[in-house]
Specification:
7-stranded mixed β-sheet, elongated, about 475 residues, 24 strands, alpha+beta, FAD/NAD-bd_sf, FAD/NAD(P)-binding oxidoreductase family protein, binds flavin-adenine dinucleotide, FAD/NAD(P)-binding domain
Length: about 475
Amino acid sequence: MMLSSSSSFFLNSKKPLNLPIKPRKTPILYQNAPQQPPRKKPNMDGTTKYRRRSSYGTSRKSILKKSFNQEQVNFTAPLPDDPLVAIIGGGMSGLLCALSLEKRGFRSTVFDTGVHGLGGRMGTRLIEPHHLLFDHAAQFFTVTDPKFGQLVSGWLEKGFVREWEGTIGEIKAGGRFTTFPSSPPRYVGANGMRPLADSILHQATKVDVVRPCWISKLEPFNGKWYLSENGKPRGEFDAIVIAHNGKCANRLLSTSGLPLIAKQMKSLNLSSIWALMAAFEEPLPTPIPFGGAFVKGVYSVSWMANNTEKFLGSENKGPHCWTFFSSAAYAKRNKVPQENIPNVTAERVKAGMLEGVEIALGQPIGSIQKPFYSRVQLWGAALPTNTPGIPCIFDPFGRAGICGDWLLGSSIESAALSGIALGDQIADYFQNGKDCPDEFAIGLEKEFQPLEGHDIGQFPGLESEPSTKESPAYQLAA
Ligand SMILES: Cc1cc2nc3c(=O)[nH]c(=O)nc-3n(C[C@H](O)[C@H](O)[C@H](O)COP(=O)(O)OP(=O)(O)OC[C@H]3O[C@@H](n4cnc5c(N)ncnc54)[C@H](O)[C@@H]3O)c2cc1C
């Protein structure tokens, strides 16, 4: 249901309110009411005890209930001349949304949780004192869209990215390696994916970046969106962009007054992937020297990449840093809370994945040298497995949009195109949406379709078959 009012914003109220400028301590929004103390439940013996409640109403059921029952926000305040947009998420999509708004003359603030830098799933880790460098999420990307191509050319000129000329291919269990053709070109961050993310806004004058910051609440009020981080105000904005997904986004949207957007976000399914970063004293016994390989027919490993080759070239003699990714099926079976991985799980996953590497390389189990450094990480919300196949979602009544890889696919390119599209959509809306805002609605009811690709995403232009369960090695490692 959509409600509107003669005041700039009101929700779930029968008559217009005389609204104060700042949000009240006790917000008028029913969905933002302060949390009640735990309810007392009578016991059989007549005493009472506190019923345990999940913290912050975070269960899937409670989020769903809140998401679908909330009423639609309707901003009716005149469109401001110089709007400020909040972008929650500083991955590729959020950064390019900010850049696209900047190019159209609009201001934005990007909020990101990253402690070490921006980038989200463009993650790079530097381990001292050995100076071990790992890209531990996105590995490389391809380009098919001219708009994205133009951006990448600029990054090439500035030295933010370069072509990865190392050998990339497919390795089948037992060590059978097939090299992919060198076209289309593969691009990598010159010093890793995260430094690329940190460079994208280097010339922006209309973008503020706030990190590390975890936006925990969005409150529409009096014609503005008010953002806060665990009770600490983080500013007021004329429009918001959700440039992240998964549980966190569902929680944020569950009480925001954006039921259509919340529903679309809830329709998204995500896989999980374990990453194992491992540094070896000696080179691994690969069939031929290669930079990266999609692994086929091995249950616990779907990708292996030689970061030392990628960053320092094949001649480098130093420690050999590898990134291994599990298959989505293996991660599903070994899923734990990603913020709190039990040691026993970490050890089991590490052993299982190293065994998978041996199977892939056709080496006897237990024969490969032990890494002198290793670390596992679970990407709990790694990659989308379905998509609405639309560049972005925008709700002009709630002045809110979503961008992210999942709207178009599962790659850096799709994240970039989604961010650019949403930035343009919001700019168009603020420029021309005064009289007929509904014309700027996009993607609010688009249905989802399954998404094909590798376990670690899509690489437009690079063709390869997905893993099959029929392979004997897959069965062996399972
Ligand atoms: C293991 C793995 C391997 C991959 N390999 C490749 C590859 O080789 N090539 C390729 O093209 N793609 C690859 N991908 C996919 C690619 O990384 C993603 O498609 C792309 O980076 C997604 O960008 P995004 O902006 O949509 O989201 P994200 O990168 O996830 O960015 C979202 C950001 O929002 C932040 N955030 C979340 N909640 C909040 C909040 N409440 N407040 C503030 N900030 C918040 C997050 O911390 C994050 O920084 C891989 C992904 C994974 C997981």
